[in-house]
Amino acid sequence: MKVLLVDDHPLILSALQGVIRGLGDDVTVVGVASAAGLRQQLVTDAEFDLVLLDLQLGDANGFDVLSELRSAHPALPVVVVSASDRASDVIQAIDLGAMGFVPKRASNDMLFEALRLVMSGGIFVPPMSLGMDAGASAPTPPQDAHAEADTVPDVMRIGETAEAAPFQRHAPSFASLGLTPRQADVLAQLLQGKPNKLIAREMNLSVETVKDHVAAVLRALNVSSRTQAVLAVSQMTQGQLPSFQAWKPNRRG
Question: Are residues 108 and 220 in the same domain?
Answer without folding.
Answer: no
